[in-house]
Write a structure and sequence with these properties.
Helix content: 40-55%
Number of strands: 9
Radius of gyration: 17 Å
Oligomer: single chain
Distance between the termini: 37 Å
Order of helices and strands: HEEEEEHEHHEEEHH
Strand content: 5-15%
Largest sheet: 3 strands, antiparallel
């Protein structure tokens, strides 16, 4: 989560009220890192002025087919959590690191709906928008992933998350 100062600075900056700052759109990445939403103007980075003007690259996410396939399998096997808020079941950084050590990059990637193919395959940053806690698909995580993807212009990823939500709801209703 971002500090209150960062959130306030981001809001002021997005509104064009930051001191001497050019107007840029703001959003938060799947990893909680500020980035711009102004791809239509050719921007490739966002500036977080509340953190000393550090620039963050914008991810270029695509649908991670391995993650989508894993989510479908888990939904079909009734391995899902429909009720728990994502903030309560989202894996910690330590849990993610432990899982990655045990299951490798590919196993870790199978729990994410998005992939940044421009990032090193050995990096956790390659994957974004997790959909579960490494045990079950979380309905709340799918909602979160769909919203984040849509906010950041990753329409194909948002569509994939939406289709998984529909599949989960249909499976639960049956």
């Amino acid at each position: 989560p971002l500090s209150a100062a960062t959130q306030i600075g981001a809001a002021a900056h997005a509104a064009g009220t930051g001191p001497g700052r050019e107007r840029e759109a703001w959003s938060i990445s799947a990893h909680g890192v500020p980035r711009g939403g102004c791809e239509e103007r050719g921007a490739t980075t966002a500036v977080d002025h509340a953190r000393g003007g550090k620039r963050y690259p914008m991810s270029k996410y695509q649908v991670n087919q391995a993650g989508v396939s894993n989510a479908r399998r888990m939904i079909a096997a009734c391995q899902h959590d429909l009720d728990t808020p994502w903030s309560q079941v989202a894996p910690s950084a330590r849990a993610a690191n432990d899982f990655m050590k045990r299951h490798g990059d590919g196993g870790y990637g199978e729990w994410h709906l998005a992939i940044d193919t421009e990032t090193s395959p050995e990096s956790k940053d390659r994957y974004g928008l997790p959909f579960g806690d490494f045990l079950r698909v979380s309905r709340a995580a799918l909602i979160h992933a769909k919203q984040r993807a849509a906010q950041n212009g990753h329409d194909a990823v948002a569509d994939a998350a939406g289709q998984l939500l529909e599949r989960l709801d249909q499976a639960h209703a049956a």
